[in-house]
Write a structure and sequence with these properties.
The protein has 381 residues and is an alpha/beta fold. Helix 11 (275-294) runs parallel beside helix 13. The strands form three sheets. It has a seven-stranded mixed sheet with strand order 1-9-8-5-4-2-3, with helices on both faces. The protein is 38% helix and 15% strand. The protein folds into three domains: 18-189, Aspartate Aminotransferase, domain 2; 201-270, no CATH class; 275-380, Aspartate Aminotransferase, domain 1. The chain is built from 13 helices and 13 strands. It has helices at 10-14, 21-28, 40-54, 73-77, 95-101, 121-133, 201-216, 219-239, 251-257, 264-270, 275-294, 349-357, 369-380; strands spanning 34-37, 60-64, 81-85, 106-112, 137-142, 149-150, 153-154, 161-164, 176-180, 299-301, 314-319, 333-334, 358-362. Strand 6 (149-150) and strand 7 (153-154) form a beta hairpin. The chain is globular. It binds pyridoxal-5'-phosphate.
């Protein structure tokens, strides 16, 4: 079974900051006002408050129905009614439905770039226009792929506000950003933005788990690792931290568990990451899946092609009979756990169907040619 996210390497941690890193990449691709957070949901919560400061009477928000249930929580916490629009099987928004849902109480319309592939420019433009007609803002949710760009501009910066989840692309314990792209919105109230100024036990535990085998054989680390394992076991017993992959957690609990600052280790890794290498590896691995999947029966790609500038989070494919995935079942994961209001509702037939059939295949930068070959053999089995 392949990991779905990359593992942090000692080489990254112990290398020097190279001056480029993720921040420079953000700034080179049009992100001028942004702040760091532990998680995208909390970044979104601050963004909501920034918009509410201008429109305090707003009472609803227009969201895509094809969404994991946890991301709806910040809107509920802010007292906004979520209204859902549909998409098609290529994950393109239903613009007519968006217009039907908008009214004078709408704070914002959110659009999502799924799995790191940008929505079409025309659709982004149309959503912005519709929102503006009703005096609403737009939220560009680029949680999935922090390094993706469209025509040279960073995804996440196409709305009045936007978010990205760095921890979904990079081997870091947590990390996200809120982008403000409307000069009329004041960033004065970004109350939840924070980066820890020191390393915590959680950072050491994360390294301990990531370095595992390679380092554990070095005598100098043996003592340190045994301490980390002890601390890790004790903390699992005492604080019951919510892991996002667990099945059917309470979305409210998921959200509560994300109200933490970005870790110091995450910042350290951002400063030592070469975005260009990450993008190249992910795109190469995506192409391997694309060649493989297009030759298989009973499984079809979601996207026609890999958009220039996209740094894919996963390779998404629609599986006709998920129970027959065979050897790939440990690697291909269904996505997402839909919001409760959307589940089983006929209006959202496409979303409900996709949430059982759409599976994600890993493309991350930690997968080398050998591992990809093994995965492709499994798929062909
Ligand atoms: C589309 C989308 N937006 C936002 C989020 C929230 O991101 P985070 O896990 O960083 O809070 C997720 C999480 O999976 C997501 O899939």
């Amino acid at each position: 079974m392949a990991r779905s996210t990359p593992r942090l390497s000692p080489r990254t941690v112990f290398s020097r900051a190279n001056g480029d890193g993720v921040r420079a990449y953000f700034e080179d691709h049009g992100a001028s006002r942004y702040s760091f957070y532990g998680y995208g949901k909390v970044a979104c919560r601050d963004g909501i408050d920034v918009m509410l400061a201008e429109c305090p009477d707003a009472d609803n928000v227009v969201l895509p129905a094809y969404l994991p249930y946890g991301i709806v929580e910040p809107f509920r916490e802010a007292g906004l009614e979520p209204r859902y629009y549909t998409c098609d099987r290529r994950l393109q928004p239903d613009l007519n439905r968006i217009e039907e849902l908008l009214d004078s109480g709408t704070l914002a319309v959110m659009f999502v770039h799924y799995f790191g592939q940008p929505q079409a420019r025309e659709d982004i433009g149309a959503i912005r226009e519709l929102a503006a007609e009703y005096g609403a803002y737009t939220i560009d949710d680029n949680a999935h792929a922090a390094l993706s760009t469209l025509d040279g501009q960073l995804l996440g910066t196409f709305g009045d506000i936007g978010i990205t989840s760095l921890h979904k692309t990079l081997p870091i314990p947590n990390g996200a950003a809120l982008f403000l792209d409307n000069d009329d919105l004041s960033g004065a109230a970004l109350a939840r933005s924070a980066v820890r100024d020191r390393y915590t036990k959680a950072d050491y535990r994360y390294c301990g788990r990531a370095f595992g085998r390679s380092v554990s054989r070095q005598p100098v680390f043996k003592q340190a690792l045994s301490t980390l394992r002890w601390v890790s076991a004790r903390s699992r017993r005492t604080n019951g931290h919510v892991h996002q992959n667990d099945i059917e957690e309470d979305p409210r609990e998921i959200y509560e568990s994300t109200k933490i600052p970005m870790s110091r280790l995450s910042l350290h890794v951002l400063e030592r990451t070469d975005p260009i290498d990450v993008i190249a590896s992910r795109r190469a691995n995506y192409r391997v899946w694309d060649r493989t999947i297009r030759d298989l029966d009973g499984i079809e790609p979601v996207f026609e092609s890999l958009t220039p500038g996209a740094c894919p989070q996963y390779y998404p494919a629609i599986v006709e009979a998920p129970d027959d995935l065979g050897t790939l079942s440990g690697t291909a994961k269904p996505w997402p756990p839909l919001p409760y209001e959307v589940r089983g509702d006929e209006t959202f037939a496409t979303e409900n169907d996709l949430s059982t059939r759409l599976h994600t295949l890993p493309v991350h930068q930690g997968l080398g040619t050998d591992e990809m070959e093994v995965l492709v053999c499994l798929a062909n089995d």
